[in-house]
């Protein structure tokens, strides 16, 4: 009777290792694994009728619930993105939303704005979208096809010149492509994107994907090998403060861009679980992850302090609200963290079911959370 | 004078010796010289058929209520075996009426229900879910993967502490809204059913299973604990219970009809005879049904009522003449032969008309309606024997009471002389042949018809009430269903699209992505509350495997990731696709099953299928096939019903018109006969709008039956009227004559037919009630329409100029000579 569930948890525990094998090694066991798994994928590619990368997003009826995953502020506006290429904009602090055309129908997971005009969206099928008109129109900067081409070009050239890293990377890519349902599309998702004011920025994704751009994303340079992430863990989030870039990811991965070596180096943390988010401020570095784990550092990551949030589920967002940081958990619970005293106080839960992300709005005390049933406005209230 | 008129030209012969036994037709002579043989044969037949009738099975098969030739239903029938978990489970909700589920007393009661249900044969124990089943587990993402355990703590002891653990586990398991009510005042036991009874090895009998649930589970409820049970098998069980209740109504119908007959004849002897012979007809029919392999289902159970009503009402016709004859002193044997002579052919024609009226229903391609058409036709055929042969023969033995015969004569005289109120009204009917009244009647009819035609446009297709449409909104089952909808947010209206792929190809990115696109479109369709399918589950499983990160709520193009998600989904939710991963249901939960909602959802799905179904011979075939699920089947049925109604009108009115043409040999008379019927049909449809009854499988045959029976009235009235007119009688005289001769019978037929079906209105099965109400209306209104509209229409259509002046002289004033001519002709017409 316990059979089915037990089996699932086994599968889940196996997963990271399985993926690890797929992504990193060239042992015969991998080939075995690949042949065991039904790789009808290649057949399916013969006559694909639906390719989200080649379709623009369908118009949705906004009075009906549609899931959204990521949310961000762009000046006074709010943007939220979700599956099926959904991009929504709100000009009234999250009360009402209108759909913005999207050039792709892929599942979008994160939206970020540098200022009121310049924003980026990342999603599955290695999609990266860009706007320079405050989010009214979006263009594709990267997708599973162009990224694959780019990687093959860059690493191909290096391999051709006898560079071993280039050869390894090519092998890694072809291994990853072995399971893609579409022969010319790199399937893995991009999970976060961030640019500084100078136009320097990074995009990170699953299986250790990371690229750098210095021109607001017009051109990209793969940086996969320029990290300490040899295990190719998923990279979930980016943060930046005055040119200092940070990346957090799966299984305790936390890295910092070393300006000198131009390499992301591992920063040790007291936790080995996944960090879903990172925030960097002048006086504070903060990472949050699974099971309510929240760590802060006052000295760029040398020393860490665990903050007891009292929350049990993954922490999805930490956002500024005056002197406070509001930390939101996936189950919709919230605490506020005083940035100076690091005092935690409990807030009333969002009571909205599962929450995927949260953003501040132009109105103090008002948040917007993303959920399966759409975005929802939450007023912050102290729980007593 | 009066005698002559009523014996219709046949001499009064008080003594049998004076009667020429070789008079009359060949059939009459054969039958009446072998009276004993006829009686004994009929008795024997009744015994034999009665024996088989007792072995007739009672069942409620849903598949017989759906149009099996609809392409959508063909899809459903082709794949239903591979779509497990679609409705074939039972849900028992145990409610704490005095608090919430975190109550040791409640949990103990729940355990008792759980354990009792577990032991009922037919429950698939390995997949039964409830708070007390260890299969229901909580899960939590940890750094090492996923942690979990049974929701009910292994060391549960009813203490505060263990209840708190349970509370936490329920939260972690995320079963609120599925196994635990949103307000935590009840929890649910979900038990899939086995197809085969584990002990007998025979298919599970839903009737028995449902009875067991009532006996063993429902009996556990008390002031504190409430029990609500829903599920397909329970629904079928309740329908079967409803069938037994309806059988009881048969008694009531018999009683009402007997009362009518008694008030008409005032003769206990013949009333008992008529009713028993009509019941015998029903016994024959039931025996025949058993022999021909039919079962009694919620539709066919109505046939005996109809047959009984037709049997009684037509049988009573016989009484008319026989009462008069005996009243005037004719010997009962001779009176019986007179009646046979007078009415055999007319009766035969009327019954054949009825057969045609019912038989045209065969063109509606829904098994229950076909069965209804065939069994009713069969029943009417049976009546030819019981009514046309047995009644005259039996009457020749027992006759009628002298008193009744005397009353019959007196009543007619009274009516003739306008002494009673009824007689006054009755007599007033022929005023409708006058221009003034005819104009008024026609004008009124036009107004009513126009108003009703406008109202009729609002007639909705399908079922309009929430819950299981087969049962009443306030039935136990529908109250349970409403409770569950309210407390669990679970809609009972499921529209299922069947996704067909090659074996093991449901897992392919392309299949899932396309499936997901349809789910997405359906979710964006008004009236769809939510959807559930493999593609959506894969999104959640993929996210779950990525430590619950919402950024992985996707169908990954990486087939390795998607493969493991599909595997996990198949393990955790069996039935999400078939074992071979080739037939996958996509379920849309609808807000209601109104026709508009169904049409909208159907349209979205159809368009999607047209766009995305792969071409024949594709390497990876992917097809979206409509439809399954109760709402899907209803949508398909609605389409057929909508098509069927047009075909049915054409067929019924076509057949009726043809019949009238053949009988009257006059298109004017045909128009006069049909207009009241068309009007009744229109008013009936307006009535459906006012009563909130939709056009559906059950109400489709009503109009055909109503028209088929309703045309009888016109046949009776017009045939006499036309005959008199042909002999030069004025319209008023002709109609008067027609009323005197058949009007009372027309009224009686209307009343007894209505009596036969009116009891259905109290049936616990909703569509039977709808049919009962509408048929009662049709039978009565057709009668009124015939009595009032036929004279009025005749004034304009069947009123030759030459006799206009004659209409001023009323029927009672005309000379004995002309009356005699008329009468003899009337006799000729009715007997020919």
Describe the structure.
Chain B: It comes from Pseudomonas aestuarii. Chain B: Keywords: Cell membrane, Membrane, Transmembrane, Transmembrane helix. Chain B: It is a multi-pass membrane protein. Chain B: Residues 286-397 form the SSD domain. Chain B: Residues 808-832 are annotated as: Disordered. The complex is a heterodimer of chains A (384) and B (832). Chain A has 384 residues and is an alpha+beta fold. Chain A has a single domain, classed as YVTN repeat-like/Quinoprotein amine dehydrogenase (Methylamine Dehydrogenase, Chain H). Helix content of chain A is 17%, strand content 34%. Chain A has 5 helices and 27 strands. Chain A has helices at residues 3-24, 28-36, 41-44, 144-160, 164-177; strands at 70-74, 77-82, 86-90, 98-99, 108-113, 119-123, 127-131, 139-142, 190-195, 201-205, 210-213, 221-222, 235-241, 244-249, 254-258, 263-266, 275-280, 285-289, 294-297, 305-307, 315-321, 324-329, 334-338, 344-347, 357-360, 366-370, 376-379. In chain A, strands 1-2-3-4 form a 4-stranded antiparallel beta sheet, with no helix packed on it. In chain A, strands 5-6-7-8 form a 4-stranded antiparallel beta sheet. A 4-stranded antiparallel beta sheet of chain A has the order 9-10-11-12. In chain A, helix 4 runs antiparallel to helix 5 (164-177). The model of chain A is unreliable at 1-48 (pLDDT under 50). Chain B has 832 residues and is of the alpha+beta class. Chain B folds into 4 domains: 1-50 and 271-401, Multidrug efflux transporter AcrB transmembrane fold, CATH 1.20.1640; 79-238, no CATH class; 434-457 and 666-832, Up-down Bundle (Multidrug efflux transporter AcrB transmembrane fold), CATH 1.20.1640.10; 476-636, no CATH class. Chain B has 26 helices and 9 strands. Chain B has helices at residues 2-6, 26-33, 35-54, 71-79, 104-119, 160-173, 206-217, 232-265, 268-291, 302-327, 332-359, 367-398, 402-416, 421-428, 435-456, 476-488, 509-523, 534-545, 559-572, 595-612, 629-664, 667-691, 700-726, 731-758, 766-797, 816-831, and strands at residues 89-96, 137-142, 145-150, 186-192, 225-231, 493-501, 528-533, 583-590, 622-628. In chain B, the strands form 3 sheets. Chain B has a 4-stranded antiparallel beta sheet with strand order 7-8-6-9. In chain B, helix 18 packs across helix 19 and helix 23 (700-726) runs parallel beside helix 25. The two termini of chain B are 24 Å apart. The model of chain B is unreliable at 1-8 and 802-832 (pLDDT under 50). Classes of the chains: A alpha+beta (384), B alpha+beta (832). Chains A and B meet through helix 1 and helix 3 of A and strand 2, strand 3, helix 17, helix 18 and helix 19 of B.
């Amino acid at each position: 009777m316990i059979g089915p569930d037990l089996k699932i948890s086994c599968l889940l525990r196996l997963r990271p290792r399985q993926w690890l094998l797929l992504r990193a090694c060239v042992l015969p066991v991998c080939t075995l694994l690949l042949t065991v798994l039904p790789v009808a994928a290649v057949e399916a590619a013969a006559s694909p009728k639906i390719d989200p990368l080649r379709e623009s997003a369908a118009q949705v009826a906004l009075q009906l619930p549609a899931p959204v995953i990521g949310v961000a502020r762009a000046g006074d506006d709010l943007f939220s993105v979700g599956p099926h290429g959904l991009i929504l904009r709100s000009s009234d602090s999250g009360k009402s939303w209108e759909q913005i055309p999207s050039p792709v129908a892929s599942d979008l997971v994160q939206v970020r704005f540098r200022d009121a005009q310049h924003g980026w969206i990342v999603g599955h099928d290695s999609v990266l979208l860009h706007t320079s008109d405050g989010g009214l129109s979006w263009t594709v900067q990267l997708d599973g096809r162009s990224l694959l081409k780019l990687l093959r070009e860059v690493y191909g050239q290096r391999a051709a010149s006898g560079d071993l890293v280039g050869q390894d990377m090519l092998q890694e890519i072809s291994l990853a492509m072995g399971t893609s349902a579409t022969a010319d599309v790199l399937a893995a998702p991009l999970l976060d994107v961030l640019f500084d004011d100078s136009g320097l920025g990074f995009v990170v994704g699953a299986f250790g994907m990371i690229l750098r751009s210095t021109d607001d994303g017009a051109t990209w340079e793969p940086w996969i090998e320029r990290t300490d992430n040899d295990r190719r863990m998923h990279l979930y989030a980016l943060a930046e403060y005055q040119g200092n870039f940070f990346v957090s990811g799966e299984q305790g991965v936390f890295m910092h861009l070393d300006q000198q070596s131009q390499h992301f180096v591992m920063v040790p943390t007291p936790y080995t679980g996944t960090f879903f988010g990172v925030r960097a401020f002048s006086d504070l570095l903060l990472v949050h992850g699974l099971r309510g784990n929240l760590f802060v550092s006052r000295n760029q990551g040398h020393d860490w302090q665990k903050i007891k949030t009292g929350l049990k589920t993954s922490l999805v967002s930490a956002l500024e609200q005056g002197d406070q940081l509001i930390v939101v958990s996936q189950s919709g619970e919230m605490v506020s963290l005083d940035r100076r005293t690091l005092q935690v106080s409990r807030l009333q839960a969002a009571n909205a079911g599962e929450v995927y992300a949260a953003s501040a709005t132009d109105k103090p005390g008002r948040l917007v959370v993303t959920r399966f049933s759409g975005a929802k406005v939450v007023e912050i209230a102290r729980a007593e | 004078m009066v005698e002559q008129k009523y014996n219709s030209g046949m001499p009064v012969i008080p003594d049998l010796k004076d009667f020429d036994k070789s008079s009359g037709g060949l059939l009459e002579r054969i039958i009446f010289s072998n009276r004993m043989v006829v009686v004994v044969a009929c008795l024997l037949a009744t015994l034999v058929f009665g024996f088989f009738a007792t072995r007739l099975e009672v069942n409620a098969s849903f598949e017989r209520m759906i149009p099996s030739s609809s392409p959508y239903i063909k899809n459903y029938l082709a794949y239903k075996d591979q779509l497990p978990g679609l409705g074939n489970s039972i849900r028992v909700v145990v409610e704490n009426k005095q608090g919430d589920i975190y109550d040791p007393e409640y949990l103990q009661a729940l355990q008792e229900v759980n354990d009792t249900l577990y032991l009922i044969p037919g429950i698939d124990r390995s997949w039964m879910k409830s708070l007390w089943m260890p299969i229901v587990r909580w899960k939590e993402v940890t750094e090492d993967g996923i942690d979990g355990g049974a929701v009910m703590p292994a060391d549960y002891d009813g203490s505060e502490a263990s209840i708190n653990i349970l509370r936490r586990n329920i939260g972690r398991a995320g079963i609120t809204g599925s196994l635990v009510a949103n307000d935590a005042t009840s929890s649910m036991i979900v038990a899939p059913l086995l197809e085969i009874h584990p002990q007998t090895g025979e298919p599970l009998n839903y009737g028995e299973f449902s009875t067991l649930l009532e006996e063993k589970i429902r009996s556990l409820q008390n002031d504190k604990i409430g029990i609500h049970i829903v599920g397909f098998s329970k629904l079928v069980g309740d329908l079967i219970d409803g069938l037994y209740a309806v059988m009881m109504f048969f008694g009531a119908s018999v009683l009402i009809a007997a009362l009518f007959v008694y008030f008409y004849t005032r003769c206990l002897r013949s009333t008992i005879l008529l009713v028993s012979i009509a019941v015998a007809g029903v016994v024959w029919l039931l025996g025949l049904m058993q022999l021909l392999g039919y079962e009694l289902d919620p539709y066919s159970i109505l046939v005996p009522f109809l047959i009984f009503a037709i049997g009684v009402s037509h049988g009573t016709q016989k009484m008319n003449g026989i009462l008069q004859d005996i009243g005037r002193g004719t010997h009962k044997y001779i009176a019986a032969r007179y009646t046979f002579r007078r009415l055999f052919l007319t009766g035969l024609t009327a019954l054949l008309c009825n057969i045609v009226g019912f038989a045209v229903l065969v063109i509606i391609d829904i098994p229950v309606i076909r069965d209804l058409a065939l069994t009713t036709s069969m029943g009417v055929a049976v009546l030819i024997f019981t009514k046309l042969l047995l009644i005259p023969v039996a009457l020749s033995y027992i006759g009628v009471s002298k008193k009744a015969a005397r009353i019959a004569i007196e009543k007619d005289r009274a009516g003739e002389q306008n002494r009673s109120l009824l007689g006054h009204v009755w007599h007033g009917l022929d005023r409708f042949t006058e221009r003034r009244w005819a104009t008024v009647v026609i004008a009124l009819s036009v107004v009513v018809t126009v108003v009703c035609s406008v109202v009729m446009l609002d007639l909705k297709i399908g079922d309009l009430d929430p819950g299981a449409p087969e049962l009443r909104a306030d039935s136990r089952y529908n109250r349970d269903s409403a409770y569950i909808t309210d407390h669990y947010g679970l809609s009972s209206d499921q529209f299922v699209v069947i996704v067909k792929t090659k074996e093991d190809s449901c897992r392919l990115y392309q299949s899932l992505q396309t499936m997901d696109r349809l789910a997405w479109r359906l979710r964006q369709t008004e009236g769809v509350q939510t959807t559930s399918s493999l593609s959506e589950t894969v999104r959640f499983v993929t996210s779950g495997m990525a430590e619950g990160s919402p950024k992985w709520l996707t169908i990954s193009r990486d087939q390795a990731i998607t493969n493991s998600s599909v595997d996990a989904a198949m393990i955790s939710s069996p039935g999400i696709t078939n074992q071979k991963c080739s037939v996958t249901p996509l379920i849309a939960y609808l807000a209601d099953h109104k026709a508009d909602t169904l049409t909208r959802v159907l349209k979205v799905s159809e368009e999607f299928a047209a766009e995305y179904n792969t071409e024949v011979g594709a390497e990876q075939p992917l097809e979206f096939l409509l439809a399954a699920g109760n709402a899907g089947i209803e949508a398909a049925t609605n389409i057929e019903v909508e098509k069927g109604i047009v075909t049915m009108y054409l067929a019924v009115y076509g057949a009726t018109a043809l019949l009238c043409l053949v009988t009257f040999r006059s298109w004017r008379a045909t128009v006069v006969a049909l207009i009241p019927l068309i009007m009744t049909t229109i008013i009936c449809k307006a009535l459906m709008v006012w009563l909130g009854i939709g056009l559906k499988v059950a109400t489709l045959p009503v109009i055909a039956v109503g028209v088929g029976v309703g045309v009888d009235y016109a046949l009776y009235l017009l045939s006499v009227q036309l005959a008199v007119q042909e002999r030069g009688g004025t319209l008023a005289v002709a109609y008067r004559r027609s009323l005197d001769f058949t009007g009372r019978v027309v009224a009686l037929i209307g009343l007894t037919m209505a009596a036969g079906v009116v009891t259905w209105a109290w049936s616990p099965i909703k569509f039977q009630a709808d049919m009962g109400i509408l048929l009662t209306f049709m039978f009565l209104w057709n009668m009124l329409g015939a009595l009032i509209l036929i004279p009025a229409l005749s004034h304009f259509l069947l009123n030759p100029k030459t006799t206009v002046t004659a209409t001023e002289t009323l029927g009672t004033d005309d000379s004995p000579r002309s009356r005699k001519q008329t009468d003899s002709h009337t006799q000729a017409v009715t007997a020919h």
